[in-house]
Amino acid sequence: xxxxxxxxxxxxxxxxxxxxxxxxxxxxxxxxxxxxQPSVRWDEKSVVVSDITCDGRPERIxxxxxxxESVWVGFIQRGARPITMQFPVGRHSQNSLCSTPVRLExxxxxxxxxxxxxxxxxKEVKGCSAFSVVDDSCDSFHFYWNTSRKELVWWRR
Length: 157
Fold this sequence. Notes:
Blueprint: H1 4-36, E1 41-42, E2 48-50, E3 59-65, E4 71-76, E5 83-87, E6 103-108, E7 112-113, E8 117-118, E9 129-134, E10 141-146, E11 151-155
Antiparallel strand pairs: 1-3, 2-3, 3-4, 4-5, 6-9, 7-8, 9-10, 10-11
């Protein structure tokens, strides 16, 4: 039997290494996105890790802010060039966010919506996620992986 002190010390060591690995993944994601879009101020605290492409491997997603009051979404999948998308803020259009700052939220992938119906190219896979860009002022942008076209797509109510 392991004495309680040693069990606690081992648990703390594993927790510290998990935190360090998460920080390394965030720093790596931000570094990759800075190379792709150097003028964007990428938010390291926004990085989330989740399997979006439904291949069993996690992708990294982050948000950034442009000098022109825009919001950027960066999507990094292993072995591919990063995908970056720019969204204006406050233009009162369907492709515009209403305010900043924004945050990322992940959820289980659901391929239908009451208002939108079935999402094109969406395939529900256990363990696969979708994500949303939320600004708390108007409808969120919802992202999923279109398996038919092999691309990241978004929709909004």
